């Protein structure tokens, strides 16, 4: 069987029906309606057979070079379907898109570089008391110090954006901050997420000190983005502890899994692990099939 390649705009109504019938119960990162707007609708769909197995690949073009990448708020991509023809899809991917840096749910070859990364997940089926028993001692202390903070649910994304811009001004370029704000606003417009977005703000009295956005989809609560204000008051650092403690309490004794996302930053990884989460592997992969001398520019 052959591998066919579609651009997002080339899909017929029948093609969309085949995709959605296959991907209904999968991760949010496997949903084309989630990936496409975050990728500015530049997505190639690699299909083996009659949609037996397929893969969504976000791409950009620069200096006449098309490359695969991971848009904001998409952690990993997956092969969807019957798990056949995967190597053929990979070979066609590298033929069609000469350079790529993406993350996949599982390890596949052949790629030039494969690096393991760690995600963190917490099953919330137990009672809140049982879940809290598995928190680290440090997390228990910080949550105790945050008990006077108030959590308010909102549909307004502006507070989160304001905090993020203020605290990350030295960590991100202005272009990146603008893109993050644009993509957050895009998520609010996705019809399929209308009732799935959860935005929580933490207040010390009436002072906003932290904010976070989650998406609840197919029994998984995805942590998308969050930030705390830094100030002279040490209580500000407890804002995200309070938000996650609130979420774990609220969704305890349910079928929900809390997906913290992963991080290569040790401090963030410790924060996620401290809530009793377990590790889940995924993989960063890279390939470079560009001709000389472009292959030397993209390393």
List the helices and strands and how they pair.
Layout lengths: L2 E5 L5 H11 L8 H7 L4 E6 L4 E10 L2 E4 L11 E2 L4 H11 L2 E6 L8 E11 L4 H6 L3 H9 L4 E5 L3 H10 L6 H16 L7 E8 L2 E11 L2 E9 L10 H13 L5 E6 L3 H8 L4 E11 L5 H4 L2
Parallel strand pairs: 4-6, 11-12
Antiparallel strand pairs: 1-2, 2-3, 3-4, 3-5, 6-13, 7-12, 7-13, 8-9, 9-10, 10-11
What does this structure look like?
It is a single chain. The protein has 299 residues and is an alpha+beta fold. It folds into two domains: 131 residues, Aminopeptidase (3-Layer(aba) Sandwich); 131 residues, Gcn5-related N-acetyltransferase (GNAT) (Aminopeptidase, 3-Layer(aba) Sandwich), CATH 3.40.630. The protein is 32% helix and 31% strand. Strands 1, 2, 3, 4, 5, 6, 7, 8, 9, 10, 11, 12 and 13 form a 13-stranded mixed β-sheet that branches. Strand 9 and strand 10 form a beta hairpin. It starts with a strand and ends with a helix.
């Amino acid at each position: 069987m052959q591998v066919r390649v579609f651009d997002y705009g080339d899909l017929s109504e029948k093609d969309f029906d085949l995709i959605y019938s296959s991907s209904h119960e999968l991760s949010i990162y496997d949903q084309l309606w989630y990936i496409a707007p975050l990728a500015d609708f530049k997505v190639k769909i690699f299909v083996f057979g009659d949609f037996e197995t397929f893969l969504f690949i976000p791409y950009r073009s620069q200096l006449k070079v098309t490359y695969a990448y991971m848009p904001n708020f998409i952690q990993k991509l997956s092969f969807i379907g019957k798990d056949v023809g995967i190597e053929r899809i990979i070979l066609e991917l590298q033929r069609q898109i000469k350079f790529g840096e993406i993350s996949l749910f599982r390890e596949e070859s052949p790629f030039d570089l494969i690096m393991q990364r760690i995600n963190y997940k917490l099953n919330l089926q137990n009672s809140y008391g049982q879940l809290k028993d598995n928190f680290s001692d440090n997390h228990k202390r910080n949550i105790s110090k945050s008990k006077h903070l108030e959590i308010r649910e909102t549909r307004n994304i502006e507070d989160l954006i304001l905090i993020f811009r203020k605290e990350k001004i030295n960590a991100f370029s202005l272009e990146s901050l603008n893109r993050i704000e644009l993509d957050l606003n895009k998520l609010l417009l996705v019809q399929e997420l209308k009732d799935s977005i959860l935005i929580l703000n933490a207040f010390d009295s009436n002072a906003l000190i932290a904010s976070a956005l989650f998406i609840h989809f197919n029994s998984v609560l995805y942590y998308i983005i969050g930030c705390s204000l830094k100030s002279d008051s040490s209580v500000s650092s407890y804002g995200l502890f309070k938000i996650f403690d609130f979420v774990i309490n609220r969704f305890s004794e349910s079928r929900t899994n809390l997906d913290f996302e992963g991080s290569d930053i040790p401090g963030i990884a410790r924060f996620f692990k401290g809530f009793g989460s377990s590790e889940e592997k995924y993989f960063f992969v890279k390939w470079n099939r560009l001709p000389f001398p472009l292959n030397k520019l993209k390393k």
